[in-house]
Specification:
One of its GO terms (cellular component) is mitochondrial matrix. One of its GO terms (molecular function) is ATP binding. Keywords: Aminoacyl-tRNA synthetase, ATP-binding, Ligase, Nucleotide-binding, Protein biosynthesis. Helix content is 56%, strand content 6%. By secondary structure, the chain is mainly α. It folds into two domains: 1-32; 35-132, HUPs (Rossmann fold, 3-Layer(aba) Sandwich). Helix 6 (104-121) links the parallel strand 1 (96-99) and strand 2. The model has no long low-confidence stretch (mean pLDDT 92).
Length: 135
Amino acid sequence: TMPKEPAVLRQNILDTTAAILACGIDPKKCFLFRQSLVPEHAELAWILGCLTNMPRLLRLPQWKMKRASQNNEGTVGLLTYPVLQAADILLYKSTHVPVGEDQVLHLELAQDIAQHFNKKYGEFFPVPKAILSEL
């Protein structure tokens, strides 16, 4: 949600890919791709954003904290980022999502959006469940 220099962004993509491979992810068994090259993420985020009300997003604590740290000038991208996360999850019809405690509310938003969409248009998205790590 923060602007980055193109060269830094490209290097971050390469570094993240290297870290994923170094962790032992086998590209022969998993699909690795740049999410930004899949337009359906943004397209679904737009559709889901049209089904998500502003008060729900404004209540998210991450929005409140980041907005406060940015002198009350949080961006629209920051506000709608949880809807993009929901699109990232729902696009692949995910049933279980590994999340940290700090992301539980965002997953709950994805669950709510899936339920709302299904109620309005018929069963389409599974309602994803959280997989919390035990640290």
